[in-house]
Each structure stands twice: as structure tokens, then as C-alpha cells.
Amino acid sequence: MGTIVLGYDASPGAERALDQAVELASAFGDRLVIGFGVHPPGLGGGEGTQHREALREQAVQLTGNALQRALAAGVDAEIALVDERPAEALTGLGEQHEARLIVVGSYGESPLRGAILGSTPHKLLHLSDRPVLVVPGG
Amino acid sequence: MSSEVGDKGLKKDAIGFLDGLVIGISSTAPAYSLAAVLAIVVVGVGVQAPAVMLVSFIPMFLIASSFFYMNRADPDCGTTFSWITRALGPGIGWVGGWAVVTTGILVIGSLAQVAAFYTFDLFGAEALRDSTLANVVFTLLIIAVMTTICVLGTELSAHIQRVMIFAQVGALLLFAVVALVKGGALTFSLSWISPFAVDSTNALILGVLTGVFIYWGWESAVNLNEETEDSNSAPGLAAIASTVILLGTYVVTTIAVVSYAGLDRVAGFEDDAGIFGALATDVLGSPLDKLVVLAIITSALSSTQTTILPASRTTLSMARQGAMPEAFGRVHPRFLTPHVSTITIGVVAAVWFGVLFPLSENFVYDSLTALSLMIAFYYALNGFSCAIYYRRELTKSVKNFLFIGVGPVVGGLILTGLFFKAIIEYSKTDQSYSGSALFGVAIPVVLGVGLLLLGVVLMLVWRFGGHRPFFGRGREIVDPDVASGLKLGVAAVPEQAV
To answer: How many H-runs (helices) and E-runs (strands) does chain B carry?
Structure first.
């Protein structure tokens, strides 16, 4: 049994990525790891406990919904909150679980906008040693 | 690699001592701060201006120690708010947090406006530079861009700031060294750095009041807390190291300016932050003088950003502890930053500046004078909180006694003294830019004390509106294991408060 890692933040792209990941996991009989990076961004000062807790609570809520859907579809799934930025969190999870592939949704925006806003799929493609599947937000 | 829900493991390599140092220095905006206060200090104490820079450093250094130890026990992004709440109780903690947020809001517009003014100056656009409308429009644009950057949580900021801060301190020191080598109106003597050579104690105290402002903001290095490698000591060390670097830069540059230009010429810039722009051309010639102008622009820009951040993190922490509306505690699902807090801070700062600057530039300058009052207020509380929070640890070693007890308390007492002295001195209308008064009291005092009192009122409103989980919290004391370094502080909020 292999593992598929999914990056999930409840955006439209992530919803479609979830569907895709569930489908693949069923087909391969894989386990699904739903990952979320909960490290506060911004290096300008003032990121501390309360910020981290806020992110963690939100992550638990968001990924919890995804977990329910995966389990309902008959896929063995778990949640992993990682204290890293999103792209690093997902590559780390990929390594840890020796994942078959990493699935993420894209926001479907232009490359320039993605570069300015910080695009996790874009970073992931550069960072990951494993196959990455990017699912457009439509 | 930490990956489980509830794991408190921290990411260790997020940001190092150097970055903490850089952020500590850039938040104080040395080029901007010095440009704003140098002439005022010189008018007050003459050639002993460098001595005032030195003396102002003492209370700040003592308070740095309290930030260091409180951060070790409670590395929370609410810093001052969170610490005062623990040590002195929720009511006064709330007002402390209010003071941090309000000082940020008051100064954001002024910082951005300096960037706007000098950008026009850099490109020789004198008509725009002298137009109030152009200044306001450009300033609001800068606030909008900086707020957006804070919401996006761009990862570039530490790298950009590292470059900017070295350019800034480098340009100031280049200017200082060339000015010293060239020589000028006066010859340096050791008495310039002796506070005992100042003629009147009153002049010295007033100088220190102004001087304290130039070290304000460096605690941002402590606000980084968990972001930093070895998070329970690196930020504190970075805060202390950045203070030492600031001290050196301020003293050397002040000596250079006073000796090169002489007292009369410096005094001419009392109401004008343009002092470096004007002197740089004489000292460095074109085009090197542009370096100094660039230093001031980067100084003002980076400190606009590093002022928005701690203010928004304070409201985030307050909201999550039940001390502010819940919305301020929200984080954006994609950018992971407290977007509601950040945008609110940006908008309020923009409105404050956008409305008041066109009405009266002097009123805006007066609001900066009011800042010294509010800064002294929350720094003093921080110092006292430290000694009280650690009270059972103070007698355990000489080091504890001096650095956790005596230092912060003396720092707190000095700042309390300055706070009341400032109220007395600034009440005289001749100390005010606008020269006007409300109820017979000059604008800076009305603003400074008024905003603190408003904080008390809002706190009471919040308190009587319920929110017992927060206001029902009792005073706490440091965990002895955390104090002795056996255990890391993890900043757990008491159960009943969540």
C-alpha cells in the first residue's frame, strides 16, 4: 500500500484536488495524507504562539472537512499539520511517507500574479523530488 | 520534522540571529529617527547632543533586559500585552496592548510621509515635494502597498530588509566618516559625550525625552520570538545587539553632524527632517549624497512595514485571548496572516493621517511628541511586569537579581519619571508645534494622555460588555523551571481564557 499526499486549503482548486486525490487513492488502494503547513509567514516580526494557534485551529477545521469526505469515499486517510511553510511542509510529508505523488490545487491565476502572491504549486514543482500533480481550480 | 496535531515543535531554521538583529534595527529606522530628532536635541543641549544619545540609551537597555526575560517565559506575538496581562492583570494588560497598537497607528502615516517626501526630493520633483496633496496621495499609496505586503506575508521581506539595513547604516556611517575627516565648524572634544557637561538638568531630561524616541521599535526583534532559531534567547540577544549598534551609529553620526555643520546651522533644522538631505550634498557631493537620501527612504519604508506587523500581531493576540473582537484573531486561509487585523491597522492609520495631515501638519508633528508619552508608559509597565512576574526567582542568583529585578525596575522608574516630566514640560504650549491648546493644555499632552485615557474607557466598555474569560484571569507568576532554563516557555494561555 502506498501513500498519496494532498495539500488542502479549501480553495476551489484544493476541492478539485481532493476529489482527484480520493479517486487516485481508491484506484491504487493508497492511504491519503491530508497536509497543511501551519507555520506563520512573514519575517517582519511578531509571529508567535497565538498566531500559530490560530493557524492550527483553522487548519484542523479545514482539513477535518476534507478528512470526512475522504473517509466517506472509503479511503483510508489521516491529517498532518506541519510547522513549515506550505511547500516545504508538503515535500517533507512526501519524504516522510515515501509518497507515490503529491497532489495540490492551483488557484488558476496568471504566472505573474502567482509569483507576486506566492504560488505553492510553483514552489512545490521546484522543491519536490517526487511526482507532483497540480489540479487547476477551474 | 514535526507533523502531528498538537505538536509544539518549532521550526528551528526559520530566521536567524542576524535577521532578528536586522529587523530590530530597521524597526527603529535609524536614519529617519536621527533626522527627526537631531536638531531638536542640539537646540536643547548644544554640543552635548551625543551625550544625550548615550544617556537615552540607558533606560532602553534596561528595558531590553525585561523584553528578553519576558519573551523567554512567554514567547507570544502579543508581547507587551500578553506579558503585562500575566504579571499585572488583564485590565492594565489591555491598556498596555492598546498603547502598543495606538502608537503604531499614530506613526505609520508619518513614516510613510517621510518616504514620500524624500522620494520626490530624490527625483528633484520640488513642486510635488512641497505639495500637501501630492504628499498625502503618495503616503496613502505607500501605506496601502505596505499593508498589502504584510497581508501577503511575503517571504522576501527578511532578505530585502537585510540589504536595506546595511545600506542604511552604511550610508549614515559613510556620511559621518567623511564629515569627520573633512572637519568643519567645531572640533570634537570628549566633553561632548559627557552628560555631566550639560548646563542644566532640565535640558538634559528634555533631551533624553526626545532621545528615547530614537531607540523605539527595536523590540520588534523580540517580537519575532518563535520564528527565530533558538527562539527563547536569540531574539532577546538580537534586541540587545541591535541596541548597541544603534547607539554607535547615533553617537558617531551626531558628533559628525555637530562638528561639521556647527550649532547654528543644525538648529536651523529644528522643524525639518531634511537635515541629512541638505548636509549630505555638502559633505559627499553629487551623486554620493543621493545615498543618504536613499537611506532615509529605505529607513522610512522598512519601518512602515515593521510598525504594521507588531501592531497587527498584538491585536491578533488580544482577540484570541478574548480581549478584542474575534474577527481580529482570524487568519487568511491562503496567506496564513492575520488579514483582518493587518488591514484594519492599515486603514485606521491611513484615515488618521489622511484626515489630519491636510488639516494641520503641525498637529501630526504634535502627535509624534505624544508618542514619547505612550512609549514611556508601556515600556515602564513592561519593566515592572518583568520583576513582578519573576519575583520568586530574583533571590536565586546575583544575575537574576540584577538583570531580571534591578535593571528592569530602574528602567521602569526612569521611564515613569520621564512620563510625568513630559506631561509637565509638554503642557507648556511653547513645546508644541501647533502652539495650540485644548482646555489650557498643549496638544501633545492632550493627545498622549487622552489616548491612554480613551484606552482605559474602551477597556472598561469591553469589560462591562462581558468577556469574563479574559477579565476573570488572575495574575500569574513564572514557572520556576522556565525561569531557570530547564524548560522552554511555551506561552500557554490559561484554559479558562480560551
So the answer is: 20, 2
